[in-house]
Write a structure and sequence with these properties.
alpha/beta, five-stranded parallel sheet, 5 strands
Length: 196
């Protein structure tokens, strides 16, 4: 095995997918930015969830909004539903792991808030349940998926946004998800602050 060639191939695949995805994802990312800005301007909040690497992405996004992205500004109302180990383990233990996000959405979400739902397959049962809970609370959803969007794509309504990466590799999808999240953060700052 030539490790250098393999690493170079990973870089190449990632770069090509990002360029291939640009045209398909620019419009939904822009729609996600506009939806999130409307929510924040109306004193709403963004709740984010996902599993594994997608949990890390939810936390990353929330941190960029609560603290700052690339320019100084006041913190924005966002929280990851993946970080409170006592809440997660109590729900999983007392009820079911599939409810770890939906119970939080029902408790914390309000009409006009946004759920940022992340799953590379689009089929994570606890993220699907969170979307259902968000709709019950009259929240909008911005979904980051891959492949064909899975069950999450089927649940989304006309006021929701679907950012679906046209790929099958989990690693490559996650790499485009991170870029998409950075584009969301940048777009939010641009619209709120007039950043050029």
């Amino acid at each position: 095995m030539d490790l250098i060639s393999r690493i170079s191939e990973n870089f190449s695949e990632s770069a090509h997918l990002k360029l291939q995805s640009m045209d398909a994802l620019a419009a939904p990312i822009a729609a996600g930015v506009q939806s999130m800005v409307r929510c924040l301007q109306a004193d709403g909040k963004i709740l984010a969830c996902g599993n594994g690497g997608s949990a890390a992405d939810a936390q990353h996004f929330s941190a960029e909004l609560l603290n700052r992205f690339e320019v100084e500004r006041p913190g924005l109302a966002a929280m990851a539903l993946t970080t409170d180990s006592s809440t997660l383990t109590s729900i999983a233990n007392d009820y079911d792991y599939n409810l770890v996000f939906s119970k939080q959405v029902r408790a914390l979400g309000r009409a006009g808030d946004i759920l940022l739902a992340i799953s590379t397959s689009g089929n994570s049962p606890n993220v699907v349940a969170a979307i259902e809970a968000a709709h019950e609370c009259d929240m909008h959803v911005v979904a980051l998926t891959g492949r064909n969007g899975g069950k999450m794509g089927e649940l989304l309504g006309p006021d929701d946004v679907h950012i679906c990466v046209p790929a099958t590799s989990t690693a490559r999808i996650q790499e485009v998800h991170l870029l998409s999240l950075h584009c969301l953060c940048d777009g939010i700052d641009c619209l709120l602050l007039g950043v050029e």
